[in-house]
Amino acid sequence: MSTNRPRSSSTPELPTSTPSFPVATYRDETAGFEFDYPADWTLDPSSQMGVRGAQALLLSPGTTPETLAEGGSRVAITVYLWDPKNDLTAYVAQRRTAWDALGFEFSSESTWALADGRRVKNFIIQFPDQLPAFFLFTTVGEDYLEISGEGDLALVEEIGRTLRPL
User: Fold this and answer.
1) Helix or strand or coil: residue 87?
2) 3 state SS of 129
3) Into which CATH architecture does domain 23-165 fall?
4) 126 with 83: CB under 8 angstroms?
5) How many angstroms separate the CA atoms of 54 and 145, rounded?
6) How far apart are CA 121 and CA 137, in angstroms?
7) Collapsing DSSP states into helix, strand and coil, what is residue 135?
């Protein structure tokens, strides 16, 4: 099934820009995407998360998978196998329902499109008694890509906005 969906006039294409950081590139040939992240960050390679997905981590200097360094950031790149397949609207609705049930507050929400027309939804969410977090969702084939992060949310969002289809 094709992931190329026509853009609507209400879904602007993501403008291209040069990142504000020296660049390294994360590439997932299987899922068909890449994006840039700061070159001084560490990649904790992809690991399987049960039967429904796989996740890799990008860690700013001093940050570990378990501990966020002061002033640091952590980004998770997750590909989820989820039903219904290739339906970003349904996937986002399911996530919103779960977040609403847990009392999370939405600080911001936007929609844009990749160069190939795929829609992207991103959110900044405030968790009770925790730091806010950034979430980006789009489709990859029939599955879903989630780029999420905490710490410097402006930097995490900038990383997410470098997302490109292969």
Assistant:
1) coil
2) coil
3) 3-Layer(aba) Sandwich (3.40)
4) no
5) 10
6) 5
7) strand
pTM of structure: 0.87
68-107 as b/e: b if 16+ CB within 10 A: beeebbbbbbbbbebeeebebeebbeebbeebeeeebeee
pLDDT one-digit tens code per residue, 146-157? 999 999 999 999
CA 43 to each of CA 40, 61, 147: distance values in angstroms, whole numbers, following the listed order: 10, 11, 14
When mean pLDDT is compared over 29-33, 72-76, 78-82, 124-128, the highest value belongs to 72-76
Quick one: tokens of 56? 């890799």
Instruction: Copy the structure tokens of residue 33.
Output: 């995407």
What does the alpha-carbon distance between residue 123 and residue 126 come to, in Å, rounded to a whole number? 10
The residue extents of the domains of the chain are: 23-165
Q: Is 91 helix (H, G, I), strand (E, B) or coil?
A: helix
